[in-house]
Amino acid sequence: MMFFFSFPTLVIVLVVWVPIVLPFTIILSDSGSPSALVDAPQTGFSMNKNGARTNPQEQAAVFEIMKATGNGWATDIPDVCRGRWHGIECMPDKDEVFHVVSLSFGALSDDTAFPTCDQKHSFISPAITKLPHLRTLFFYRCFSYNPQPIPTFLGQLGPTLQTLVLRENGHVGPIPTELGNLTSLRVLDLHKNKLNGSIPASFRRLTHLRSMDLSVNRLTGQIPDLNNPVLSILDLNQNLFTGSIPPSIGNCPSLLKMDLSRNHLSGPIPEQIGNLRNLVLIDFSYNQLLGPIPNALGKLGALQALILKGNPMESTLVVGNWFERLKDLMILVLSDMSLYGPIPESLGLLPSLRVIHLDRNKFNGSIPASFQELKGLSELRLNDNQLTGRVPFIRETIWKMGQKMRLYNNTGLCYDPQNGLDDDIDSLVISGISYCETSRSTSIPTTQHLSDNSGHKSIFEWRSSAQICGSSIGLQVLVSLLMYLI
Ligand SMILES: *[C@@H]1O[C@H](CO)[C@@H](O)[C@H](O)[C@H]1NC(C)=O
Ligand SMILES: *[C@@H]1O[C@H](CO)[C@@H](O)[C@H](O)[C@H]1NC(C)=O
Ligand SMILES: *[C@@H]1O[C@H](CO)[C@@H](O)[C@H](O)[C@H]1NC(C)=O
Ligand SMILES: *[C@@H]1O[C@H](CO)[C@@H](O)[C@H](O)[C@H]1NC(C)=O
């Protein structure tokens, strides 16, 4: 390891936490911060026995921090910056004195052997404030069985700290106002704790934030006004936020990913969302957002995933045709939104679509013939609507998609034998879809086993298994997208 950027950490941050934006490795570029440290590859670093030594106060602080996490073994190391372990990074100043710039704890994966924490007894030592050059602080699954608030003294790390990760640590209580003093923070990750209270007003000062992940907590109050020109990732999913999505969201033009799903947000989606021309992923699912779906979404030419399911929008897709310009859209999830009217033919002209979920709405009319042209389509859910007419897919498409094509509970759908006949179109049979009436219907050999009784029994069996899987649908979507990007 000749480089001082904590490279394994950065790569992991991107791969594990923000799979959606894998191609956007810009997020954590570590440049431009004024520093007295020598910011370059350090050759001969740990070999140079007579060279630099760690600053003694910082070494003492590291020993305290290590002891507080159950890593007392570290105190046997004569010089922490020279006998380095994974999880500590140091940089020399021009006088060849090493300073600690990064500390990481927690078993993130088999490949990253950061020191693990004793989850029952660990705590964050106040000695951390004696590391004046610290840029990265990272604790993962460290205090899970010793619930504690996020210490306010972390705010004393001031404008030096750039990355603060306290992920899945079991932290309780509010987010300290003092974190607003970390004015150079680029990455703030408090995912999956038990934090309550609201987002501190002092966060207004975090104008360099590129990624803010407060997901899976118990945070309340409104989403504050945002004015972050470089914010790329905003993840507030699975909290208790109320109120509407602030129109000031339009002041974050760098946003790539915005996940506000599973909160109690209400009101309409603000038109200002149309300013966010770089957005790749929107997930607003499972809120109480109201329709109509804003036409401004049509300005988001970079959008790859739009997930609005579980909001009672009572809207139609035919007004505005906002989706027609979303040429990169791969994932469209609009289930359970009380959408009505026809499914527009032009939807099938979006060349990148892979996943379409329009199930559990009130769509009527027929399935657009253009859907047959979606060569990348791997998942189609149109079940529980009021669709009628011919299923426009040839036998090969139906066979290939299998259970990934859900058409059940649309009483008016039928299958045209001219699209290919065979005994093995199981997914149609279990969806209760029978052959369309044609003048040559006498030539169909398989009529008996499409009879109502056997068909309906299968539908109900299938429905119950689909509901069991329902909770993992979001994950499936992410996984599909991840697989695509890789
Ligand atoms: C840190 O923040 C708190 C509350 O936001 C403030 O009272 C305090 O003066 C700040 N400390 C420093 C060192 O800036
Ligand atoms: C946060 O949770 C703690 C218990 O963990 C509780 O005592 C406190 O009142 C809660 N605060 C808010 C603002 O809900
Ligand atoms: C679809 O439903 C609407 C009422 O919501 C109705 O006016 C329209 O005629 C229906 N269209 C078809 C093709 O059934
Ligand atoms: C069929 O779908 C409608 C929504 O279009 C729903 O209200 C109804 O409960 C569904 N029927 C069954 C048997 O699930």
- The helical percent reads 10-25%
SS content category: alpha/beta
The geometry reads as: elongated
Q: Main beta sheet, described?
A: 15 strands, mixed
Question: Can you lay out the helices and strands and say which pair or pack?
Answer:
Layout: H1 7-17, E1 53-54, H2 56-68, E2 88-92, E3 97-105, E4 136-140, E5 163-167, E6 172-174, E7 187-189, E8 194-196, E9 211-213, E10 233-235, E11 257-259, E12 266-268, E13 281-283, E14 288-290, E15 305-307, E16 331-333, E17 340-341, E18 355-357, E19 362-365, E20 379-381, E21 386-390, H3 395-401, E22 405-406, E23 412-415, H4 426-430, E24 434-435, H5 452-469, H6 473-485
Parallel strand pairs: 1-3, 3-4, 4-5, 5-7, 6-8, 7-9, 9-10, 10-11, 11-13, 12-14, 13-15, 15-16, 16-18, 17-19, 18-20, 19-21, 20-22, 21-23, 23-24
Antiparallel strand pairs: 2-3
The structure holds 2-acetamido-2-deoxy-beta-D-glucopyranose (4 copies).
Residues 362, 384-386, 409 line the site of one 2-acetamido-2-deoxy-beta-D-glucopyranose.
Describe the overall structure.
One of its GO terms (cellular component) is plasma membrane. Its main location: membrane. InterPro entries: Leu-rich_rpt, LRR_dom_sf, RLP_Defense. The chain is an alpha/beta fold and 486 residues long. The protein has 6 helices and 24 strands. It has a 15-stranded mixed sheet that branches. Strand 23, helix 4 (426-430) and strand 24 form a beta-alpha-beta unit. It is elongated. The relative contact order is 0.07. Residues 1-34, 40-49 and 439-486 have low confidence and may be disordered.
